[in-house]
Amino acid sequence: MARTLYFISGSPFAWRAMLALAFKGLEYTAVELHGSKGDTQTPEHLSRNSRGKVPVLVDGDVTVYESIAVLAYLERAYPETPLFGSTPAEAGHIWQWVMEVDGYLCAALAGAARPIFSQTFAGKEDEINENFAKVRAEFATVESWLNGNDFMAGSVPTAVEVILYPHLAMIARIGPTIKVPGINPNIPDYATEFPALAAWMKRVEALPGFDAAYPPHWRDAA
Ligand SMILES: N[C@@H](CCC(=O)N[C@@H](CS)C(=O)NCC(=O)O)C(=O)O
C-alpha cells in the first residue's frame, strides 16, 4: 500500500508526523513542498487539506491532516510499537502531556514567533517578550516530566517525544537568529540550564529513524 507524507522542511508539525512514522518503523515516501513557491496552495494540495498546510498523510485510500490526528490515525492503523502507551493510565498521561505541549509551549511560541516571521512585530514587543517568557517557563515544566526517566512517559519513547522534540529543536535553532530591537527571546542554553532536557534530546536523536526524519535543509546547512 502506497504511503506518502507531504511536508515542508523544518515544519515542526510535519516533523512530528515523520518521527511517528519513523518510530513505528513504517516506510513512506516523503514529498517536500515549498510554501514560498506556492506548493501548499495548489488545487492538488488543497484537495488533500483545504487549509493548505502540512503535514498531510496519504495512506492507501486514507488522507489525514493535522499532526496530532495523523498520530491518532497511525496508532489505530498500526498499533505495534504504541505511541500512546499500553494501559489506560499511560494513554491518559501521554495525551495529557501532548495537549499541554500544544496548548502552552506551542501556543506561546506561536504568539512570539508569528509576528516576527510575518514582520508585524512593531508595537507588539511587550506581548512578544511575554510570550517568550512563557516559552522559557515551559522548559522547566517539560523537563520536570522526565522525573529521572529516559523518556517523558517512562522507559520508551511515546507521542510526547514526537510532539515536543521538533519544537525544542526549532527554538534552539531559530532563537539565537532573532535580532529585533526591543525583543529578547532569552533562549536558554539547554545543556547548562536544562541538562536533563538536553540529555533527553540526545536520546531522541539516537533513536532509529531519527536521521531519516531530520529536516533536509537543516542537514544541508550543517
Ligand atoms: N495545527 C497544524 C499546524 C500545521 C501548520 O501550521 N503547518 C505549516 C508549516 S509549520 C504550514 O503548512 N504552512 C503552510 C505554508 O507554509 O505554506 C498541525 O498540527 O498539523
Describe the structure.
The structure is a single chain. 55% of the residues lie in helices and 8% in strands. The chain has two domains: 3-77, Glutaredoxin (3-Layer(aba) Sandwich); 88-208, Glutathione S-transferase Yfyf (Class Pi), Chain A, domain 2 (Up-down Bundle), CATH 1.20.1050. It has a four-stranded mixed β-sheet with strand order 2-1-3-4, covered by helices on one side. It has helices spanning 12-23, 43-48, 67-77, 88-117, 125-146, 159-174, 190-193, 195-205, 210-213, 216-221; strands at residues 3-7, 29-32, 56-59, 62-65. The longest helix has 30 residues, at 88-117. With 222 residues, the protein is α+β, with helices and mostly antiparallel strands. Residues 8, 11, 13, 35, 40, 52-55, 66-67 line the site of glutathione.
- Terminal-residue CA separation: 34 Å
The fold-level CATH name of the largest domain is Glutathione S-transferase Yfyf (Class Pi), Chain A, domain 2
Q: Please outline the major beta sheet.
A: 4 strands, mixed
Strand order, largest beta sheet = 2-1-3-4
3D shape: globular
Tell me the strand percentage band: 5-15%
Bound molecules: glutathione
Overall number of domains: 2
Write the layout of secondary structure elements.
Blueprint: E1 3-7, H1 12-23, E2 29-32, H2 43-48, E3 56-59, E4 62-65, H3 67-77, H4 88-117, H5 125-146, H6 159-174, H7 190-193, H8 195-205, H9 210-213, H10 216-221
Parallel strand pairs: 1-2
Antiparallel strand pairs: 1-3, 3-4
This protein binds glutathione.
The site of glutathione has 11 residues, from loops.
